[in-house]
Amino acid sequence: MPDFALGFVAALLEPCLVVVRELRPVEALFLGIRASLPIACLRRKSRNITLYATRLCEFRSENARGLAWTTMIEPQHQVHVNYAQESWRALRMMSEFVDATDALARIGPGVSIFGSARTAKEAPEYAAAEECGRLLVGRGFPVITGGGPGIMEAGNKGALEAGGVSVGLNITLPREQEPNPYQSIELSFRYFFIRKVMFVKHSRGFIIFPGGMGTMDEAFESLTLIQTMKIAPFPVVFVDKTFWGGLFDWIRGTMLERNKAISPEDFELFHLTDSVSEAVDLVHQVYLGTRPWATKLPRFDSVEPRPAQATRERTTSRRSWRTGDEYMGSADDFE
Hints:
Blueprint (H helix, E strand, L loop, with lengths): L2 H11 L11 H7 L17 E5 L2 H7 L6 E5 L9 H22 L5 E5 L9 H15 L4 E3 L5 H11 L4 E6 L13 E5 L2 H10 L1 E6 L4 H15 L8 E4 L1 H18 L11 E4 L2 H13 L18 H4 L25
Helix pairs in contact: 5-6, 5-10
């Protein structure tokens, strides 16, 4: 078979291998596609340039009259992508954002409680998280948790029994994550990153109880967003000095003093305590504006922008609720 004909047939079949069944038989016949014909028989190992048709929808819209072609280097490791499936995945992500935003837009500023899903009901941490939920509702805050068992269940239970708004942002997992029965608003997410956006967007404080990898992930992502001025600073409070003390000793000794990987000011972004009432008071006072928080942010105002940054323009000027200075973001206009 001539090279030109070989390239044409390969290009025609390549994007259709996984979705050719979506074509009606008359369309497949019109386009000359045979689903049973393997692409391997139509590709020469020595060729490193292959022609690809852009998308299946072009076959339908153009009715096989004007196909668009793109020349690209054939990768060393072939990856077969279902383009139609990828498009639907993007729409599914968008639908999660829309559903969550619609459900949470009216609850008002809340406080998120994090901690281990494995905490037993008899554990003192469970009782502390339950008390935390009650105290937050007493201050007028909706309580937001991950919606699962353990510390999350305790926080939701305390909030619901106190007559407040108890939000659960559940995540679909193969184990551990079963929705607890103490949620007045229950959402379920497939994607972690969308769930994280909702925690940050609708919270004015994080209260972190003892937990595992997921708890640390949520805690340090919030600290990173605050440190890099992507959101307005809010209190991130770690409860239980015995549990968290060793971690922050390592952060101070290794990350700060030995490696200079962080700044001394970064220790103003969080608070460590053994008292649940102190944690709730801190979040409430910062929210009311009666207690300063992260006063040395923003600290990059004196740094000259790099050329690539200097050419970027923002359509609106966002300002910090705390200092009035220009700020790179806030919890109200989360990017």
